[in-house]
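Annotated sample (chain length 126).
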Amino acid sequence: MSIQPSRKEHVFKTGAIIVLGLSGSVLIHALIRLVSEAPTAIDWELLGSAFPIITAPLVWIAKRSVTLGLEFASLKERIKKLEERDEEWKSQKNEHNWLKVRLDHHDTRLSDLEYSKKKMIQNQGY
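Output written by the structure step:
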């Protein structure tokens, strides 16, 4: 049984891709602007101050993605264990029902055998 991604997970992934794309484009735009305005000297202080603002959402998204990935893997593992337990329970239930049917059939055959034995004894005159 495959697990389909939820709507929430799909929206989160789409949002993460958009934020990553925007952050990347802002970073590239900032670098191009810095280089084009001051081709000989890059303002490292300005770049350094802009870097945390740009990377903070990326770091948060990366951490959140890892956390959600681990939670999702944990949930998949729990679901797999529950499915295995369910299959085991079903097989035990089927085995129990099969044994019950066999015992009922065995009891029926014994009663048929006893009935035949009684008939045979009656027919022989004992």
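Annotation: Residues 18 and 24 are 10 Å apart (CA to CA).
Annotation: Residues 44-124 form the longest helix (81 residues).
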